[in-house]
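Exam revision sheet. Question 4 asks you to relate a sequence to its structure. Input first:
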Amino acid sequence: MSPLISPVPGPLVATALDLPAGSPGGSVELFLDLYTGPEPLLPAAAFMLTPTGPGPRPRTRAGLDLLSVSGKCLKGPAFGRYVTALRKALTVAIDPHQIGVLHLQHLAFGATPALIRALPAHPRIALVHGTDLIFAEAHRDQMQILRESARAADAIVVPTGAMADHLLRLAPHTDRRKIETIPWGIPDHLLASPPPRPARTHASHLRLLYAGRLTAEKGGEALVKGLARAPGVELSIAAPRAQFHALAPLLKRAGVHARYLGWLRRPQLWKTFADHDVLVMPSTTLEAMGLVALEAQACGLPVLYQPVPGLRDALAASAMATDFTNTAALARDLERLRASPSLLPAIRAAGLANAARYPLTATAEALAGLGRRLA
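Answer key, structure tokens:
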């Protein structure tokens, strides 16, 4: 966060994300951007889980407290015990008299019911991120939590209209009047001062970058199969190491060489954007908004994306849509990008203008204003 940006006035927030500190993902980055740091945009009592297992512990951000609660799971009696343990830990950690409003990260998973039970008298703003909808469709217990959380929330914040539509398909009895569309944002300092992007003359190869988790809904398999028949491209992948290794056999079978960059911290990733020609976003199901695509646009990197709900809303014509599941269509679009000298600069300019619409301070101001109305 830029030191010139001041916290947004509003009630003190209590919020929790039941993921271990250091977990990858856009929802984690947004959480850290909004609620943590020396001067958080939204002053909060913010919690994640203490990491378990081998390896060094990630450095904890200022303003982030960790809960030593084990047993994270998705279903059955064990899930009920996990929520109870989270609720007890939050009850000990939070002084309810200091809190003005709850921010429920996700409509599903354990932290939302735990936070509601730990502070039952406070107004509740639920933030829908995308994985909660995906997991609710796949797990009956999570669907029940999602529907209960939607009923219990005083306001439900979605970043795009597509997310509202998807939520209402899963929880059709949700009061539509509670749904507020507040786009997620990217750091203002990135918009103001992106890393330098050196000029590149037309080259024979198109340098593609995939950046993010490689879980099934992110479309890594479709990307690899599609690139198997696409000449003139080079692929780099920035992803969690274990997920890249899981993809490696498919890369080998498809004959696709991918340069592995590691799992990059965001400032590293922003600099890496300058070394590539296109960010690929092959998501198969939905994206809450696709923050990495907006960050790429802010850094002058054009985006090639699968037009799934969420991405379609956030990117529209500011990026190039394709069908990663259609190898012929993908090869044709990649060749257009490689062979047309004017196409990439045009998409780059449209992307820069689009990213400028989503400053993180606007997200914080809207959430703070909603909190003031409810508190």
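Marking note for examiners. Residues 76-93 form the longest helix (18 residues).
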